[in-house]
Amino acid sequence: MLFAVVVSFAGMCAALTLAWCYQWRSHNAGMVDPVWAAALGGVAIVAAGLGTGHAINRTFVGVAGAVWGLRLAMHLWRRNYGHPEDARYRQFREQWGEHAGRNMFWFFQLQGVIAMLLAAAFFVPAFNAYAPAPWALAIAALIWLAAVAGEASADRQLRRFTAVTSHRGQVCQVGWWRYSRHPNYFFECLHWCAYPVIAFGAPWAWTTLLAPLLMAWLLLKVSGIPLLEAHLLRSRPAYKTYMQTTSVLIPWPPRKSAERPLP
């Protein structure tokens, strides 16, 4: 397993270094997002290809991880390429001032470290010699399918909403966005729950739980929702009301008052 991890980490660092070179020339750090997703999908393929586990485990990891990474990378590429830099990265650039180039490099490499922590969800099942129980395989496949389909649906709804000129400055409340302020993030967290199920009973299976927990923590407390919502509160006057009536992550029926907290 160590060789596969080292190869994956080296490839991840190389990919993110290329992304840093691009942002150094373009002054747009947003391209790190699709590169990160594509590279992590590539790690799933490496885990499946170099893994010594049962063929079912390796096939699940390779297919599930690659399809997830490719879809997310294509979505993020379409959203970021040729568009102004994401507000979160602009904020970092302004805060770092003349050290922005250096700090951005290490920030990109940190994304690689985070990716490899998430990749435990790929490596553990890929090196598990025992086939998963039929129920575990079925549940893992259903979780993965629901998560990827749900995230793609939420991304498509938001993209179509923001493409309408008259919707500029408005808050998207169509489809999944009526029930969650960040349904795409919810389904992203759900996606990482598929791998602990397929790894059930494997040595070190508990480490696969790190992936959904780490992703949820990052999105809820670090660089996801806090930074994004701070920007949305400044740019969309109606967003404060939306926050008071709509669940932050888990899709939930909206409420009419702000008296009781939502999930």
TrEMBL record:
PROSITE patterns named in the record: S5A_REDUCTASE
Keyword field: Membrane, Transmembrane, Transmembrane helix
Cellular component, GO, one term: membrane
InterPro entries attached to this UniProt entry: UstE-like
Sequence intervals crossing the membrane: 35-56, 105-127, 133-150, 185-206, 212-233
Protein name (database record): Steroid 5-alpha reductase C-terminal domain-containing protein
Origin organism lineage: Bacteria, Pseudomonadati, Pseudomonadota, Betaproteobacteria, Burkholderiales
